[in-house]
Amino acid sequence: AQSVTQLGSHVSVSEGALVLLRCNYSSSVPPYLFWYVQYPNQGLQLLLKYTTGATLVKGINGFEAEFKKSETSFHLTKPSAHMSDAAEYFCAVSEGIGANNLFFGTGTRLTVIP
Amino acid sequence: DAGVIQSPRHEVTEMGQEVTLRCKPISGHNSLFWYRQTMMRGLELLIYFNNNVPIDDSGMPEDRFSAKMPNASFSTLKIQPSEPRDSAVYFCASTLGASRWSGELFFGEGSRLTVL
Question: Who contacts A21 (Cβ-Cβ below 8 Å, separation ≥6)?
């Protein structure tokens, strides 16, 4: 069965600093990996996804993530944080096609300090 | 195109009362999901439907919870009787399912339930 671990429930960065949100997964088959973002009082929306192919994937708002099979990781990064990036970020894993197999991590709340 | 629409956005009720949450999925999507989000347990999948048929309700916490999808454009999640521990944000999400899945779930803005 698949699982996701997000290290750090809260991360604070200064505006303009690097954002790094960590995600490690467990999966018995090649996984599909996702990052979703949740802004206050809103639903989750897809930030980026890895299914097959290039291991470095780019998403919206300047975020990117790299699938590292050897480390079972899918960390989310952004070179320079903006105030508007303050939100909760969820890593998710799916074992194959089908949203019914999607399993979410517990989330990391990102605070951006002016 | 309209996204997933949920109502009510906020509901405050007293213990023992019936609560009905509503969801209109994105037109053309054939899979619908109900999630519950709490600080303690994070995001939990309660039930999902494919082509209006409940496929997996193993996440439904108790018999007090029930969900229906009478047609492709409407679903309800009912709690009867409600209890304070049911207080949470309930999300509905839709997508094209199975082999047509793009890898994206489309979430509504949620229904925040408070049971006093």
Answer: A6, A8, A11, A35, A75, A76, A77, A89, A91, A108, A110
Q: How many residues in chain A?
A: 114
Q: Which residues of B touch A31 (CB under 8 A)?
A: none
The reported pLDDT for the residue numbered B108 is 95
What one-character-per-residue DSSP string does A88-100 give? EEEEEEESSS-GG
Which chain B residue lies closest to A88 (C-alpha atoms)? B42
Residue B9: both structure tokens together: 């956005």
CB A76 within 8 A of CB A68: no
Per-residue pLDDT of A19-43, as tens digits, reads: 999 999 988 788 899 999 999 988 9
Q: How far is Cα A106 from Cα B34, in angstroms, rounded to an integer?
A: 17
Which has the minimum average pLDDT: A69-83, A84-98, B63-77? A84-98
* 3-state secondary structure (DSSP) of residue B98: helix
Q: What percent of chain B has pLDDT over 90?
A: 78
Report which DSSP code applies to B73.
Answer: T
- Chain A CB contacts of B45 under 8 Å are 102
